Amino acid sequence: MKSFEFTHASTIEDAIRTAVSSGGKYLAGGTNLIDLMKDGAETPRKLVDLRRLGLNEILSLPGRGVMIQARVSNSAIANHPLIRTQYPVVSQAILSGATTQIRNMATAGGNLLQRTRCPYFAEVAFKSCNKREPGSGCAALDGFNREHALFGTSAQCVAIHPSDMAVALAILDAIVHVQGPDGTRAVPLRSFFRAPGDQPDLDNTLLPAELILGIE
Ligand SMILES: Cc1cc2nc3c(=O)[nH]c(=O)nc-3n(C[C@H](O)[C@H](O)[C@H](O)COP(=O)(O)OP(=O)(O)OC[C@H]3O[C@@H](n4cnc5c(N)ncnc54)[C@H](O)[C@@H]3O)c2cc1C
Question: Is the CB of residue 143 below 6 angstroms from any atom belonging to ligand 1?
């Protein structure tokens, strides 16, 4: 693994400031990012740990549903009485994937932003991956998982997004609340993710250093 700097953010503003000044990445449960760093597929210069920010509650929004804050674990979401009774599809989607141990560590924000499981992306021995290295080509197009995605593919990339939870949230018209250097905004989940098009390295419409606060 390449060496990197590590810092705990103490407030949301502190986290965003640090990400802006260092170009670093946020660290939540680490179940995806750390794996990719070990493989060399992600090489951030700095990690900004979000653990001290709170953001770990599920709140009822009268007349509007619920707010799942970004650091709530996948296990806590799946087992929460409000989610189990009012949005069982979210609970079922989460419990259909990974393992108990991973769901205990994985967070709501990290789940949305996990990278593709296309093996050509994660394995740096494959030099061609437009998602990992823009302009390098796509080994998957003629490779083992050339039919990885059925819809929304491009001549540059056929990778799918791996989040089961995101599919359930899309059905429910969820909204992602984010904060960045220029303030907060709310992004409908359906316009949060990007199809690969001619810029497969961009998985979503987040702006640099924007932090997910929660999912409504
Ligand atoms: C063996 C294994 C099996 C799995 N199986 C499944 C499965 O079947 N279905 C499924 O859906 N998933 C599966 N996963 C993926 C797992 O759900 C994700 O790894 C997890 O949800 C990522 O969350 P995290 O908090 O650990 O994110 P991290 O690894 O900490 O971060 C992931 C990304 O999100 C960014 N990030 C995190 N939080 C924020 C935030 N608040 N704002 C902005 N950026 C943020 C990080 O910078 C990073 O880029 C599996 C993972 C493993 C290791």
Answer: no
Claim: this prediction has a pTM higher than 0.85 = yes
Atom 31 of ligand 1, nearest CA residue: 110
Instruction: For the domain covering 54-114+161-215, report its CATH number.
Output: 3.30.465.10
Residue 113 Cβ < 6 Å to ligand 1? yes
HSE-up of 127 (CA within 13 Å, CB side)? 1
Question: Measuring from atom 37 of ligand 1, which residue has the nearest CA?
Answer: 110
Task: Name the helix (H) or strand (E) containing 185.
Answer: strand 183-188
Helix intervals (H) in the chain: 12-22, 33-39, 74-79, 81-86, 88-95, 100-105, 108-113, 119-122, 164-171, 189-192
End-to-end CA distance of the chain: 36
| Residue nearest ligand 1's atom 19 by CA | 32
Q: Which pLDDT score, from 0 to 100, does residue 22 have? A: 96
Cβ count within 10 A of residue 63: 5
Residues of the chain with pLDDT under 70: none
Q: How far is the CA of 29 from the centre of ligand 1 (A)?
A: 7
Domain range summary for the chain, segments of one domain joined by +: 54-114+161-215
Q: What is the pLDDT of residues 15-24, one digit of tens each?
A: 999 999 999 9
